[in-house]
Design a protein that fits this description.
Blueprint lengths: L2 H18 L4 H18 L26 E2 L6 E2 L4 H6 L4 H7 L11 H14 L1 H8 L4
Antiparallel strand pairs: 1-2
Helix pairs in contact: 1-2
């Protein structure tokens, strides 16, 4: 949440409070600032008060390892970063790659799993089966 959004929310809350009881201009100003800071702190420890982007949990170049891949949002290590996990951060796989400066085709899985999947696909030779099916059709 940006600082502007937090201020808007704080204004709505203080406006509701001011409609119930009389408040001076100084009280209103102080209360808006306090509520906005409270809203920003609830947004999460990864966000600073200036609304800057959170730093990655690990170096993006070292996130994909042989037997694990580390989520740059939360720092959790796993074999594959799924769409469901990224949705919990409010991201899509393409959005995640863009945010952290990864190339478009980078697999969000550990190197061993990518290698294993590539080997299976080569063993299946789907391109030969697809080519053989076309002339008979």
């Amino acid at each position: 949440m940006t600082r502007e959004e937090a201020l808007k929310e704080a204004l709505e809350i203080v406006k509701a409070q001011a409609s119930v009881r009389a408040m001076s201009a100084e009280e209103l100003t102080v209360m808006v600032g306090n509520v906005a800071r409270g809203i920003m702190s609830l947004d999460g420890p990864g966000q600073s008060e200036e609304g800057g982007a959170q730093p990655p949990a690990v170096d993006p170049a070292k996130a994909i390892k042989e037997s694990s891949v580390t989520c740059l949002e939360c720092g959790r290590a796993m074999k594959i970063i799924t769409k469901k996990h990224l949705a919990s951060h409010g991201l899509t796989p393409d959005g995640y790659r863009f945010k952290w400066g990864m190339k478009k085709g980078v697999a969000l899985a550990c190197k061993a799993l990518v290698r294993e999947r590539r080997k299976k696909m080569k063993d299946m030779k789907l391109w030969e089966k697809r080519g053989a099916a076309k002339p008979g059709a």
